[in-house]
Amino acid sequence: MFITLEGPDGSGKTSQLPALKEFLQDAGYEVVLTREPGGTPVGNQIREVLMNLKNVSITPRTEILLFLAARAQHVEELIRPALAAGKIVLCDRFGDSTLAYQGFGHQIDLDTLQMLLDFSTGGLKPDLTLLVDVPVEVGMERKRVNSTEWNRLDAYTLAFHERVRQGYFALAEAEPARWVIIDATKDKDSVQKALQTAVTSRLGGG
């Protein structure tokens, strides 16, 4: 099963993933935990370019292509082989991030982005996507407190990040069978429990 976590910056999804992985392993599953951009040596090099605050000259079109290049490598080198081996793949962001950030955030044509996504992934889509949601102001304040995580995309305007959040809601509404929205304004243990419940429900049903 391919499970992705999505959400606005500062939602806390990344910090929740190790505990979710441990929960699934304790239940007897083989689990691969990965992230985007990244997940492979090539992808991690591209991540350095994308996230570096020095690279403010990167245009939205360049940004899209870099993300997609990292994703293409990620799918072929890590995700598909793990799924073929019967493992659960937990991924911190995937294609929906491109639609939310570059599509709704940068206001790039969604049909064009979807075509590029299909090419970069070979048509691979998650079985379950967990939207770990917080209001934009809450998420950005969390990011500011943890300044070591502040990156080039974080530095976009609040209006940009609000469009991203609303974009996620639109994506979830369009595919309700795939998405589960998790309220991440609650305490960390409650959020983890909600994630575990959502995943267990899908595994039990599948």
Automatic annotation (TrEMBL):
EC supergroup of this enzyme: transferase
Function: Phosphorylation of dTMP to form dTDP in both de novo and salvage pathways of dTTP synthesis.
Pfam families according to UniProt: Thymidylate_kin
Assigned protein family: Belongs to the thymidylate kinase family.
Keyword Transcription regulation belongs to the record: no
Sorted UniProt keywords: ATP-binding, Kinase, Nucleotide biosynthesis, Nucleotide-binding, Transferase
Residues in Thymidylate kinase-like domain copies: 5-193
Annotated source species: Candidatus Brevifilum fermentans
Lineage: Bacteria, Bacillati, Chloroflexota, Anaerolineae, Anaerolineales
Annotated PANTHER family: THYMIDYLATE KINASE, UMP-CMP KINASE 2, MITOCHONDRIAL
UniProt-listed Enzyme Commission number(s): 2.7.4.9
Gene Ontology MF terms: ATP binding; dTMP kinase activity
Biological processes annotated in GO: dTDP biosynthetic process; dTTP biosynthetic process; dUDP biosynthetic process
Catalyzed reaction equations: dTMP + ATP = dTDP + ADP
InterPro entries in the record: P-loop_NTPase, Thymidylate_kin-like_dom, Thymidylate_kin_CS, Thymidylate_kinase
GO cellular component, as recorded: cytosol
Keyword RNA-binding included in the entry's annotation: no
Record: residues binding ATP: 7-14
The protein, known as: Thymidylate kinase
Domain of life, per lineage: Bacteria
Gene that this polypeptide is encoded by: tmk
